[in-house]
């Protein structure tokens, strides 16, 4: 039996090729995701190990929960005291700032998306990891007119030593033009992973980022030989004043790396989800392929049964073929996964996450996961047709054609219906939980969608009969006898037809869902901007970060400006959401609808909160709100409760003064500009203020709405690109099914040619069969996609996405493309059928 199975496999190499390709693509996505994830983890771990000293002395609350620096610092007097501690080799103070952007020769900002733009003071303190940044060319900067850059940033910007480098700073002078005097890098290999690094001398960094105070953001303490990090930390701790802490370099590096890796972990999850989709779609192709091949081998298997082979042996022989196929597919997929990981590295480099300095990490888990996924998915998919074949008696298998009985399809229908009902229940629970932020809601939604898709796929041989019958009648009317034959061939084995269509159904269902989500999100943005937009212009950072507060002062002086409203945000510090701040003197300009309390009571030391948040937390006017800020936990009483407003999208609003006292840097996130009545050409005056600041833009209502829609468009395009993998597999499934069907019907094709059917008529018949399959999959996919999209948007209608918009034009394009897919998928199978030798085909058994 083992020998027979292997010979059968070798005898059908071409037929199994596209099934293998489905496994290859799915495994490649799994392997590529894991390799990229491991490379990302290794890179950040190595990076942070090179950016800490043996012991790091820092203020408690020196970093906000979102990873930015607070305004808390370490006084220089601490350094002098630490220098005399036994076991201390040297002590170095560090000044750091986010938002120091390098402007390239082309006038564009380097970086900005993702990895930070850092400004620091230069020192040559040794890193705990032993591979810190060092000057590799030039000299250290001295004075405000000199800087050093990391090599990668200088290369991207097009600067060499001696060039003048335009800089944008978060505070102080908005723009500087120092001279590049040095380049820094990792002599032993390493990378900043896309971050940009600008280095000043210590006095200049303190002047720019700490208002000239003799203070530091943190301090590195270097140990003498033979002194461990723990021993040095213990010796240092006793001398530190309240509010200052000491941690080992290893602890600081692990903490920073863990926070960042947790923040970017969604990348791996995101990619693995699409790997799963590809494998599910590929499973349909494998099931269909093995079903056809096993049916074609029915006589062969019947003879084996007649010679004494048991049902179990027949199943095992098919499973052996699947095992070999899975191993081959996993091996090729593993190799392709390495290339995919390299491609992901290049792709994410376009968004600022540059891992080019880090070699790819090929871990053991990647190999194990790839083979487990490839082999298990293939064997599981092949088990169903193998089990079904084992139930066929030797005498029954001698017949020319074997199809599922009506009772079998009816059983499949009821099982599929039960599966779909379970999926609906899971989907309802998950969508209800996601609104209430209950754990595992995402998994519930994913499982619900999968069960519904599988349920519909199981029911499709029954529910698709009216469609297939209508297609046969339409084709017969439009294309005559060839159209009638194509329709009858689709109806001959509805299970096979619908199984092939189901692969396309899954991809298009998800694509349609995302199309509706994207279109609804954009429509909701337009509506909220139209209803809630106040003022005449919005000023913001193109990277979504902070910008110099002096810009607001300059814009307030532009002719025609009546008022400027500042907004500042801090994310993830308050219940996982964040806090914002405005000036109480300008709060009336927001035109908030107050439901309780009075905005006149909003002052330093108090907050105003959104209505939905107040209801969720059970807050009334006067109740204290406990907030975790860099200076520690504090309580602010509620002065007023207002209706939710997208202009202030964070739930708790305090004053600018309290934000600064809480330990946050005084930098603005957005400005709303109010024009005086009759002011003309105000945009030109505002643009002039930021003419030399490419990171800050001025937008009217239409431009602001467009800016809010752009991330949605980008996200949907990425989703479509990833779903394209599933659609490619689905198209391969149609090609494979048609090709195997032609082989299965070789004798029938020969008879058609013998009675006068021309080659072009034969090609047209097979093309129509392909169109039926693809259109059926598209119709089912679009219907399910509309249902998923509408239900999903309805479930989150209270989360700011109030508009449900179905892009019927886009869905129509999907249906039109399905016809094109069907015609293209039929090219090779139709060509093969047309080229069959008539006499040999008739003689085929």
UniProtKB/TrEMBL annotation:
Keyword vocabulary terms for this entry: Cell membrane, Membrane, Transmembrane, Transmembrane helix
GO cellular component, one term: plasma membrane protein complex
Coiled coil: none
MacB-like periplasmic core domain boundaries: 17-238, 497-680
Entry keyword annotation includes Cell cycle: no
GO BP annotations, alphabetical order: lipoprotein localization to outer membrane
InterPro entries: ABC3_permease_C, Lipoprotein-release_system, MacB_PCD
Endpoints of the signal sequence: none
Domain ABC3 transporter permease C-terminal as annotated: residue spans: 273-394, 721-837
Coarse class of the protein's main subcellular location: membrane
Membrane topology: Multi-pass membrane protein
Short name of one Pfam family: MacB_PCD
Cellular compartments annotated: Cell membrane
Family: Belongs to the ABC-4 integral membrane protein family. LolC/E subfamily.
PANTHER family found in the cross-reference section: LIPOPROTEIN-RELEASING SYSTEM TRANSMEMBRANE PROTEIN LOLE
Name of the protein in question: Putative ABC transport system permease protein
Organism: Nocardioides szechwanensis
